[in-house]
Write a structure and sequence with these properties.
The protein is an alpha/beta fold and about 300 residues long. The protein has a single domain, classed as 3-Layer(aba) Sandwich (Rossmann fold). It is built from 10 helices and 8 strands. The protein has an 8-stranded mixed β-sheet, with helices on both faces. Helix 1 crosses helix 2 and helix 4 packs across helix 5. About 35% of the residues are buried.
């Protein structure tokens, strides 16, 4: 065998070794590869990745924008992470804001301790602790879905810390869901299809293999999500009685055809907060901050600039 053929054979062996190593990592611990991908993507977007200790727990966060810009803190929802805000963070940083995006305990690249309760109130305390750790005395605070519920509690319990409040398709009201909450932890491609239909008006059609990959990636956080959902379904920490007491300016952004939290809930929140502004995004569902960011961004920047 010539030296050239031997080199080609060794090269094929090396490529196969890399392939099977990556596949094994993905099967055993998909978050390892996803974290690496996210680090690269964050860097390309000009976002910096950091971690800070809050109440003894490691909280990962992204930050972007001018150091001296007005601080905006954005809180993701159930099963989400900092990446969910990528489409709205960019226009905010271009407008001169310093955007901080923490990942709640149990999600993304933050710690996932087994001895944490994962209630809305406990995650609220983490957000306040995050602001304390970074020396953020007063911020414009936004939250999406469960994150919207969390920031309502922050604004109610620490009004001096919130300059303006932004709620995106937010939970918080004492309303029992009319859909199967188990879909937040789908176990089969068919359940995943139903879950996507719940989130967006026209869900993507995934090949079966892609469905199984998505399910495999999600499974690391399924137990966290189940624990959080169980807590929310108890009806504790609801905000119906808290919202009328908010005094800061409030922007409520809602997808017109949201099935997770129907528009009527956004209208109820608007009614409970007299000084609030309600913006309904036509044709959008629960994923409005991602899928309809082009319509939302100008309204958000305008609200924050007043």
């Amino acid at each position: 065998m010539t030296k050239g053929k031997m080199r080609l054979r060794y090269l094929r062996y090396a490529i196969q070794l890399v392939f099977w190593t990556i596949l094994l990592l993905f099967c055993v611990r998909p978050s390892i590869l996803l974290d690496g991908k996210n680090c690269v993507v964050d860097s390309l977007r000009g976002m910096k990745s950091h971690s800070v200790i809050v109440a003894g727990r490691r909280v990962h966060y992204l930050v972007a924008g001018p150091v001296d810009g007005p601080p905006v803190v954005l809180v993701h929802g159930l099963g989400g992470d900092a990446e969910d805000w990528r489409n709205l963070a960019a226009p905010l940083t271009r407008a001169g804001y310093r955007v901080y995006i923490p990942e709640l305990i149990g999600y993304g690249r933050s710690e996932k301790p087994a001895d944490f309760s994962y209630t809305v109130q406990n995650e609220t305390d983490i957000v306040v602790g995050f602001m304390d750790a970074l020396g953020l005395k007063k911020v414009d605070l936004g939250g999406w879905s469960m994150g919207g519920w969390i920031v309502q509690l922050v604004a109610s319990e620490h009004p001096e810390r919130v300059k303006r409040l932004i709620l995106f398709d937010s939970g918080g009201l004492k309303v029992k869901p009319d859909w199967d909450t188990r879909l937040f932890t789908p176990a089969t491609p068919d359940e995943l299809k139903q879950f996507f239909a719940l989130l967006v008006p026209h869900p993507p059609k995934l090949p079966a293999v892609a469905g199984w990959i998505v399910l495999h990636v999600r499974k690391d956080e399924d137990w966290v999500i189940r624990r959080a959902v169980a807590s929310m379904l108890t009806g504790g920490d609801t905000t119906d009685d808290r919202l009328p007491g908010l005094k800061m300016p409030v922007l409520i952004v809602w997808g017109e055809v949201d099935r997770v939290f129907p528009l009527v809930q956004g209208e109820t929140m608007h009614h409970l907060v007299p000084q609030s502004q309600l913006e309904v995004i036509p044709g959008c569902g629960h994923m409005a901050p991602v899928q309809c960011s082009a319509q939302i961004a100008p309204k958000l920047v305008d609200f924050l600039s007043r």
